[in-house]
Amino acid sequence: MSIRPAQPTDGVQLSDFVKRAPVAKEVLAEKLTESIFEMKNPKIQRIVRAFIKKYQEELLTYPAATKNHHEYVSGLAHHIVGMLSIAKELCKLYPQLNKDLLYAGVILHDIGKIKELSGTITTTYTLEGKLLGHIPIMVEEINEMAKELQIDAEEVTILKHIVLSHHGKAEWGSPKPPFVQEAEVLHFIDMLDAKMNMMDKALSKTKPGEFSERMFAMDNRSFYKPTFEK
To answer: CA-CA distance, 62 to 18, in Å (whole number)?
Structure first.
């Protein structure tokens, strides 16, 4: 056995050695496209489609955070697609929800992280990320995109509100609490998907009959893993 430096012809990439989403990015891209085709409102659909086209590569490769949840290659898209699956089921249970608004909010709410975070390897916060944060960044992006597409409608204001309020409270980073039904629902979908990801990660390293490590982002709680099968 011998060891040598990798050559360009080996096709080895740094991303091959970092944690990635358990779903292929091609599948994630397909799920995103499917959700856009379900939209009926042409203004909302155009805005969402434009953002997916603008950030196609980054959206499918960036992590959703530096730590805690979906902090791996394609984590952002994995988080979004997980949330879309929840949103789809909730729209069946509560048909009064505006599916287009909810889907759009799910897809757009964290795209600002593409500017907030430095990339997929040894992810840190950028200067914009530290000084502004992904929520204000995305609200500004929606403004600019709406002007570029020449869309001046109530839909734009509500999309900005959904992004602005998706953390739920000022102390959690949202300048406004949710004032639209779909914004309230999005907040809980976001929390559910993030918390499930954190618990799954901790419990995957926990033996049955034992407690997981404590998780600061989960109120410093540890979770018990039952000994019986589900």
So the answer is: 12
- Residue 118 burial (CB count, 10 A): 15
Q: In this structure, how many other beta carbons lie within 10 angstroms of the beta carbon of residue 179?
A: 12
Task: State pTM to two decimals.
Answer: 0.89
Residue 187: name the closest of 105, 132, 108 by CA.
Answer: 105
> Of the ranges 79-83, 90-94, 167-171, which one carries the lowest mean pLDDT score?
167-171
DSSP, collapsed to helix, strand or coil, labels residue 73 as strand
Q: Which residue's entry shows tokens 């300048």?
A: 175
Other CB atoms closer than 10 Å to residue 29's CB: what's the count? Answer: 17
Q: Which of 170, 180, 179 is nearest to 133 (CA)?
A: 170
Strand partners, 125: 117
Token reading at 151: 């869309």
CA 65 to chain centre: 9
Position 230 pLDDT exceeds 90: no
Q: How confident is the model at residue 12 (pLDDT cuts 50, 70, 90)?
A: low
Q: Average per-residue pLDDT in the chain?
A: 91
* Amino acid letter, residue 156: V
Nearest Cα residue to 44 out of 101, 86, 112: 101
CB 223 within 8 A of CB 208: no
Cβ atoms 79, 64 nearer than 8 A? yes
Mean pLDDT across 59-74: 88
Q: Of 11-20, 40-49, 112-121, which one has max mean pLDDT? A: 40-49
Mutual angle of helices 181-203 and 75-93, in 10-degree steps: 130
